[in-house]
Amino acid sequence: MSSGAWMMALVILIAVATLGFLISCTVRSIRDERSAHRSVWREFGLSIALMVLFFVTWAAQFIAQWQRFTDEQLTDILTYGRPFSPMPAWGIDGGGPMNPQQIDNLIAYLHSIEIPKDQARKEATDAAEKERQRLLGLGDSLAAAQAKVAAATTDADREAAEKEVALIETELSYNAGRYPSMGQALFNLNCARCHTLGWSYDEPRAPGTGAYGPPLTNVDNQFPDVDDQIDFVTNGRKRGEKYGLNGQSAGRMPHFGKLLSADQIEAIVKYERSLRETRS
Ligand code: HEC
Fold first, then answer.
1. Is the Cβ atom of 163 under 6 angstroms away from ligand 1?
2. Is 268 touching ligand 1 by the criterion CB < 6 Å?
3. Is 226 in contact with 242 (CB distance < 8 Å)?
4. Residue from 182, 184, 195, 266 to probe ligand 1 pocket by mutation (most atoms less than 8 Å from CB)
5. Can you give the pTM of this predicted structure?
6. 199 touches 193 (CB < 8 A)
């Protein structure tokens, strides 16, 4: 058992013991001191109420902040609620209104607001390094996919492999002449889903073609001063505020100052500004 689990067991033990002590005190005093002609509630209502309150607070406390739950645990808690606590069941299986997909979405959202800043930053950095390695390995992946085409024995296998080859070739053509940089890796992971058409459904078009967010092939005109662009990406702009030369925020562009370091944002911005080369 980890030290956290031991602590958890200890705290539960103390809490249960305290609760047991309170219950036994109340039961004893009810037995010893109760006047025969008065109702239990009349004489001991307050202590019973306090005891119940203690129990509820303890259970709520447990849920609210004690443990870092695993996703499985969270799914269970959200789906079935917590008996003996104010936490209701949200999942259909538990009699609540949400389907499993909605519970998953909720958990993803909880993660996004819950991960401590340092950890989130570390995860973003690690993921970017992994993405950079993927970009560097695209040539090898292409060769492997081409070998798969050659080795395919069924039409279905060959088609799948050919699709893979086409995808990698397209991606390589976008990178033509550019050495995969950290900026590009960070862009792919943090920005492409909104700024590159097709990125979210595995049919990415040229980087920065624009999707939910505007195309980025013109950012050097929008932000003649590179520091303005860095500031925009770092701090964002509230809905209605101006940015760059002629931009007006709809408040939908997230800001990245909490998740990414200044160096990382600078690298992304440098990469974004290089996208002007793809401007036709
Ligand atoms: C959730 C979608 C989303 C993500 C993720 C996102 N953006 Fe945006 N971005 C937008 C939207 C929407 C706008 C338009 C401004 C607005 O509505 O606030 C925008 C505008 C911009 C602009 C100004 C473009 C112009 O010419 O006006 C830049 C530069 C930009 N984003 C860079 C980035 C970078 C860099 C990242 C990643 C670190 C990123 N964006 C991630 C949605 C997104």
1. no
2. yes
3. no
4. 195
5. 0.65
6. yes
